Amino acid sequence: MRERIRATKEVSEPTGTLKEGRRRLPAKLQADWDSLLWMFASFALLYYTEFASTIIFSALINRLALWCSLSSALVSILCCAYAFKKVPHLSSANWQTEAPAAVITATISALLGGTSLIIAIWPVWGIYSTVIVSVLFMGFISTVSLLDLCRFL
């Protein structure tokens, strides 16, 4: 009788905990999971809203605000490239002492570019314009962080 109870306990007890039984994701993928989700969300948003064709062909788009947004984005990218080239050996904490004008200019132009992009697409999507620009911004930041574009500058 005791042998039967002992055999039943051995069979019914789990061999390992639930955490040990699960497969673990690779460390790089586990660390960048949220970046992949933002990228997927921005690609899905671009596809389902037909963002590019709307920007190019829609008569409702405010073209002056769109050109202001694109020029501000270009200024911001150039300031970031300048900061990476000028101060490659320093951490990002020292950029404010080594290239303070580049940091301030990039921040102001990025804010101006995002605001003018919202103004440009407001006639088409209305209040959803802020959500669209926010998701696209996070998708862009996530793509840059995953590709590690800073090493190419």
How would you concisely characterize the structure shown here?
This protein is mainly α and 153 residues long. 76% of the residues lie in helices and 0% in strands. The chain has helices spanning 2-12, 18-21, 27-31, 33-48, 51-57, 63-86, 95-98, 100-125, 128-147.
Ordered list of secondary-structure elements with their pairings:
Layout: H1 2-12, H2 18-21, H3 27-31, H4 33-48, H5 51-57, H6 63-86, H7 95-98, H8 100-125, H9 128-147
Helix pairs in contact: 4-9, 6-8, 8-9
Distance between the termini: 75 Å
Shape: flat
Rg for CA atoms: 25 Å
Mean pLDDT: 80
Unreliable residue runs: none
How do the helices and strands follow one another from N- to C-terminus? HHHHHHHHH
How much helicity do the residues have? Answer: over 70%
Count of helical regions:
9
Q: What's the total count of β strands?
A: 0
Task: Give the amount of beta strand, in percent.
Answer: under 5%
Report on the biggest sheet: none
Overall structural class, as computed from helix and strand content, comes to mainly alpha
